[in-house]
Design goal:
CATH class: Alpha Beta
Radius of gyration: 19 Å
Strand order of the largest sheet: 7-2-4-8-9-10-11-12
Strand content: 15-25%
Order of helices and strands: EEHEEEEEHEHEHEHHEHEHEEHH
CATH superfamily: Aldolase class I
Number of domains: 1
Number of strands: 14
Distance between the termini: 36 Å
CATH architecture: Alpha-Beta Barrel
Number of helices: 10
Low-confidence stretches: 1-11
Helix content: 25-40%
Oligomer: single chain
Structural class: alpha/beta
Shape: globular
Largest sheet: 8 strands, mixed
Length: 339
């Protein structure tokens, strides 16, 4: 749970050239806000840019979104002076409170140059892994971001297939997926993507997309669709927990090299996952520690309450699961499979 209990210890300022937006949870870990959190973020999340020029139907930062400009998904991102944020990040990393930093960059004016400058400024002060989620125009942009100090560049597909991309995203599926594949080959181990469960894809389409990314060496951050007021898809329901668990396990098995999407069993009409090509007792052994239900993405990223409401459904656990939570999730998952 995240609650702001007092005014900030440092001044929250109007967004401008010398400010960075910081997720409220990250601001708490950095000491920029006084808040209580039961699962502090292990990555500092930072946002750069103005309202995005793209118009993705689920995004609070979309061109025609009516959501507040300081929001991304369920999270608010107040602005703080850049140098103050860098100093706080450096201190928190030295104290082992955080493991990495990640810039979320909207496709706005001069956004690639702004991202390069921000990454370089942070890298000069702090020797920590830095990720950036951005819409690069070509491989040269990716090279420039890596040269500036980024450890990883994420190009978000969000949609698992071209059909869903056309319905929910702005831009070109063909160009985006081709650029991601090219950069994965040019910069092995340094590319990532995001995929969102619940945009209208089948579980088979999602599993096959995850498999392709894994084969390319692209890390996959898995998200649940989150309806937010002011966006085009505000009235769409999030995925059912069992649906998310099935896909979440598919990603975990694929990434761990324990199974492949072509081995999975799918419903011939709906594409829903029915099995993973593994015996039930083997699956239960693999699930016993609950790691399959943890947040997936870059190393050190736990994204607490990005897709969840405190006290609501936990799609991505940002911490180790309790024994009763593991039992609940395993029962929910296995109850929907064909055994």
């Amino acid at each position: 749970m995240l609650r702001t209990t007092l005014s900030s210890q440092t001044a929250i300022v109007q967004e401008g050239q010398d400010t960075w937006r910081v997720s409220s949870g990250s601001a708490g870990v950095l000491g920029l806000l006084e808040i209580r959190q039961d699962a502090p973020p292990t990555t500092v999340y930072l946002m750069l840019g103005e309202r995005c020029s793209r118009n993705c139907a689920f995004c609070t930062q979309a061109r025609e979104s009516q959501a507040q400009a300081s929001a991304l998904s369920r999270v608010t991102w107040p602005a703080f002076p850049q140098q103050e944020v860098i100093t706080a990040i450096t201190r928190a990393f030295q104290e082992a409170k955080i493991l990495r930093a990640c810039f979320q960059v909207t496709a706005s004016r001069n956004y690639v140059q702004e991202a390069k400058e921000a990454i370089s400024a942070l890298a000069q002060h702090c020797q920590m892994p830095i990720g950036v989620s951005i819409v690069p125009r070509d491989p040269k942009d990716v090279a420039a971001l890596l040269d500036a100090g980024a450890e990883r560049v994420t190009i978000a597909l969000d949609a698992a297939c071209e059909r869903v991309y056309r319905e929910t995203k702005d831009g070109s599926w063909e160009k985006t997926s081709a650029l991601l594949e090219l950069c994965a080959r040019l910069y092995p181990g340094r590319m990532g993507t995001h995929l969102i469960v619940g945009l209208g894809e089948t579980e088979r389409e999602m599993s096959e997309c995850i498999q392709k990314m894994a084969d390319l060496g692209v890390s996959v951050g898995l998200f649940s669709f989150t309806p937010v007021q002011g966006t085009v898809l505000a009235q769409r329901r999030p995925p059912e927990p069992a649906q998310y668990r099935r896909v979440q396990l598919a990603r975990w098995l694929i990434v761990k090299g324990l199974a492949r999407a072509e081995q999975f069993e799918y419903d011939e009409h709906t594409g829903a996952l029915l099995g993973y090509g593994l015996p039930k007792d083997r699956l239960m052994t693999l699930l016993a520690d609950g790691e399959a239900f943890r947040t997936a993405g870059c190393p050190g990223c736990n994204r607490p309450y990005y897709n969840e409401r405190p006290g609501g459904v936990m799609y991505n656990y940002p911490r180790p699961l309790k024994a009763e939570e593991v039992s609940h999730e395993v029962e929910l998952l296995l109850g929907t499979l064909r055994y």
